[in-house]
Write a structure and sequence with these properties.
This protein is α+β, with helices and mostly antiparallel strands. Helices cover 48% and strands 17% of the residues. It folds into 2 domains: 106 residues, 2-Layer Sandwich (Phosphorylase Kinase, domain 1); 182 residues, Aminoglycoside phosphotransferase (APH), C-terminal lobe (Aminoglycoside 3'-phosphotransferase, Chain: A, domain 2, Alpha-Beta Complex). It is globular. The termini are far apart. This is Aminoglycoside phosphotransferase family protein.
Length: 301
């Protein structure tokens, strides 16, 4: 890997920050090489390589400790509650947080080249539900995590705004149904659980001390069915190409809900909301193919 002074942010991260067009995003991107150099020096790490293509709000560098050669991962991210969630889980079902400082996380090294997505779907779904059961713990007193109701309200506002997009003209009935489902999903009866927030097969990696561990949470507190809804939406391109996709989608939802003993109607409600929100976001980004696939999936439910 190049020395930190010559460090260049992965293109996916740089493009994402540039697209925001805000001074804060530009300043964070400009300060990234210095932040990386400081943490490498602070924790006496020898960099190996930058993980590509990486995420849209952080950079991960594989490194090893200078003293004992132990492999680690250094993640420099924009402000979030990720570290707080990792401290709560303390390695149970999630990557272990070794240290933190000013938005930088020192993490155990996982096998980034082996995501859960590499397994056949049936096996991956089984592993997913087992892992979610470990991650779902009661929210600790005085926690710093966002309430699910707040995140859902932002999703509803986005949907209400984007439904006016010309490309979304035929999505009106599904939009209405998704917003109606929100009333059921966000009624507060789902409990106060710590959620991963973006749980899918690509956010679970093979590890040495456990078969699979979750990474990159967007933690929040609320109904567990919200986490499961993102899992229902995983690999929808594969499902869409299978025989009888409508029946397969409904079976997937029912089987996942049963596996973690959650009401299927709540899982369906959150799935509709997340699918329609993602579809309208794809329309806004100029990706009609992705948008239509998500709307089609929502219609199958």
């Amino acid at each position: 890997m190049a020395q930190p002074a010559q460090f260049s942010a992965p293109e996916r991260l740089a493009a994402s920050l540039r697209s925001e067009g805000t001074p804060d995003a530009a300043a964070w991107l400009a300060g990234l090489p210095e932040a990386l150099a400081q943490r490498l020096a602070q924790w006496r790490l020898v960099p190996e390589r930058v993980v590509e293509p990486g995420g849209r709000s952080s950079v991960v560098v594989y490194a090893h400790r200078a003293d004992d050669l132990a492999p680690v991962a250094l993640k420099v991210a924009r402000p979030s509650a990720e570290a707080a969630a990792l401290r709560v889980w303390a390695g149970r079902g999630a990557v272990l947080l070794l240290d933190e400082a000013d938005g930088a996380l020192l993490l155990e090294r996982l096998h980034g080249e082996i995501p859960l997505r590499s397994l056949a779907e049936a096996k991956a779904m089984l592993e997913s539900t087992s892992l979610l059961r470990r991650l779902w713990v009661p929210a600790p007193p005085g926690h710093p995590f966002e309430p699910l109701a707040d995140r859902a309200a932002r999703a509803a506002a986005r949907i209400a705004e984007r439904r006016a997009l010309p490309a979304a003209g035929d999505a009106g009935p599904l939009v209405d149904e998704a917003l109606e489902a929100l009333a059921l999903a966000a009624d507060g009866s789902g409990g106060e659980w710590l959620l991963h927030g973006d749980f899918r097969h690509g956010r679970v990696l093979a590890a040495d001390r456990a078969p699979w561990l979750a990474v990159a949470p967007r933690p929040l507190v609320g109904d567990r069915a919200y986490d499961l809804a993102r899992l229902v939406l995983d690999r929808i391109d594969t499902l869409a190409a299978s025989p009888g996709p409508r029946g397969a989608a409904r079976r997937r939802l029912a089987q996942l809900a049963e596996a973690v003993e959650l009401p299927a109607d709540r899982v369906r409600a959150w799935t509709l909301l997340r699918a329609v929100d993602a579809a309208l976001g794809a329309f806004a980004a100029g990706d009609p193919a992705a948008a239509e696939l998500r709307l089609e999936f929502a219609a199958w439910l």
